[in-house]
Amino acid sequence: MISFKLLSKSELLPPTSKGTGLWFNSRKISIDLGQNPVLLLRASDGSLGAAISSNDNVSAYPEKIAELLEKALNKFALEGFSANSIEAAVIGGVDNAKWKWDRLLKSAKQANLAFKKYDDSGMYYREVYFEPKTGIASILRKEANPNEWNPASA
After folding, report:
1. Can you tell me the distance from the alpha carbon of 37 to that of 26, in angstroms, rounded to the nearest whole number?
2. What are the residues facing 80 on neighbouring strands?
3. Which tens digits make up the pLDDT trace of 58-92?
4. How many CA atoms lie within 13 A of 37 on its CB side?
5. What are the tens digits of pLDDT across the range 125-136?
């Protein structure tokens, strides 16, 4: 089962990946989500985990998420896991990206994934450290600065 742990700044972990995409690992997935939510997937035995996130805009986002989720589910299927045996959780996202939650949840439901929702409160950047073996998703929140994602204000 995927569980949630909020980290303090004193519990900083190794550097993270950034951006849009699909990440797989059996040991640890580390992502700096910025303002975007992420869909975490975990094989029921903890042998494989995945993370899906996208920076795409409103018109491109649903297709991108559907494409990434299909790739992830195909990889899990190659390892012998059907969609109904995969655990899922949606984590992160700042207030102005809340619309992405709905798209992620819709995609998860369409794929027959059982999912939980975590950490959807407020304007924070999130760094996610996910360990598929234990199912622990550790989150570090940092106050969001809109200037960090607005190139016009840089």
Report:
1. 21
2. none
3. 899 999 999 999 999 999 999 999 988 999 998 87
4. 27
5. 788 899 999 999
Helix or strand or coil: residue 79?
coil
- Using CB atoms within 10 Å of the CB of residue 46, give its burial: 0 to 12 exposed, 13 to 18 middle, 19+ buried: middle
Q: What is the 3-state secondary structure (H, E, C) of 86-97?
A: EEEEEEECCHHH
What residues contact 110, with CB distance under 8 A and at least 6 apart? none
142 is written with which tokens?
Answer: 């940092």
Considering the entire predicted model, what is its pTM?
0.87
Burial status of residue 15 (CB atoms within 10 A of its CB: 0-12, 13-18, 19 or more): exposed
**Cα torsion angle, 72, 29, 44, 53, sign:** negative
